[in-house]
From TrEMBL:
One of its GO terms (molecular function) is cadmium ion transmembrane transporter activity. The chain crosses the membrane at residues 12-30, 36-59, 79-97, 117-138, 150-175, 181-198. Its main location: membrane. InterPro entries: Cation_efflux, Cation_efflux_CTD, Cation_efflux_CTD_sf, Cation_efflux_TM, Cation_efflux_TMD_sf, CDF_Transporter. This is Protein p34. Belongs to the cation diffusion facilitator (CDF) transporter (TC 2.A.4) family. It comes from Prosthecomicrobium pneumaticum. It is a multi-pass membrane protein. PANTHER family: MITOCHONDRIAL METAL TRANSPORTER 1-RELATED (PTHR43840:SF15). Keywords: Cell membrane, Membrane, Transmembrane, Transmembrane helix, Transport. Residues 13-206 form the Cation efflux protein transmembrane domain.
Amino acid sequence: MATWLDRRTMVALATIVVAFGVTGLKYVSYRLTGSVALYSDAIESIVNIATAFAALWAIRVSRKPADRQHQFGHHKAEYFSAVLEGVLIIVAALLIIREAWLGWNAPRLSADLSLGMLVNASAALINGVWALFLLRYGRRHRSPALVADGWHLVTDVFTSAGVLVGLLLVAATGLAWLDPALAVLVAINIVWSGWKVIRESVGGLMDHAVPPELETRIRETISRHAEGAIEVHDLRTRNAGRASFIEFHLVVPGAMTVTAAHVICDRLEAALAQVVDDAEVVIHVEPEGEAQHQGVLVL
C-alpha cells in the first residue's frame, strides 16, 4: 500500500527544494549585475517554484483511489497541474517584457558582470541535472506533472545559456541595449514553452489515445493471448495520467461457457498488465454471430 511519501511525492518535494535554491542563486546574480536578462531568468525560476507546488498537489490527488464521485479514479489531476504550469509560464513572460521595456529606457548594468554570470551558470547546471532526472523518472512512471516540470527546466537551462552568451556580447561590445533585447527574446522563448505544455496537457484531458507504438504492442499481446476466441474488434485506448484505459470486444464461440470466456478475459488482462503499466482493461464478450471479421487477428 502506498504511503504519503511515495517515490513520486518525494521527487515532487525535492523539485520544490531545488526550485527555491536555483531561484535564490539567480536572484543573487541579478542583484550583482542589475541585468534585465538575468532578472528575466530569475522570474522564470519563481514560476518553477509555483509549478513545483502544483505538481506536488496534482500527484497527491492523482494517487487517490476511485470513489463515488470519481468512479474512474483521479488520474487526470496531473494534467491540470501541467495546464497551470503553461499559464504561469506565459504570465512570467509578460512580466519579463515589462521589465525589459523599463530596462530599455533606463539601462542599469553593472560594470563587472563576471561574478553574477558565474552564479547564474551554477544555477543553470543544477537545473540541467535535475531536468534530466525529472524527464527520465516522469516518463518511466508516466507522470505528466513531472514530465512537464522537466521540460520547463530544460527550457530554463537553454534560457540561462542564451542569457549568459548575450551578456558576454554586452561585456565585449559595451552595448547596454543588448541586455533588454535579450530579455525579450527570452520572453518569446518562454511563451513558446508554455504553449507546448498547455497543448500537450489539453490532449490528455481530451482522452488522447496511447502512442502508436504502444497500441501496436497492445494488439500483438491480445493476438498472442486470446487463444480460444474468434476475433477481437473495436479496440479503443485512452490515456489518463499514468493510467491507460483499454477497451475491446471479444468474440467467442456461441457454445462457449461463461466460465471458459472468463478464463480468456483473465489471461488477456494479465498479459496486458505486463505490457502496459497501470492498465485498466474492459472486455465486452460477444457470441460469434457478432463477428465483424476485422480488428485484431487471434493467433
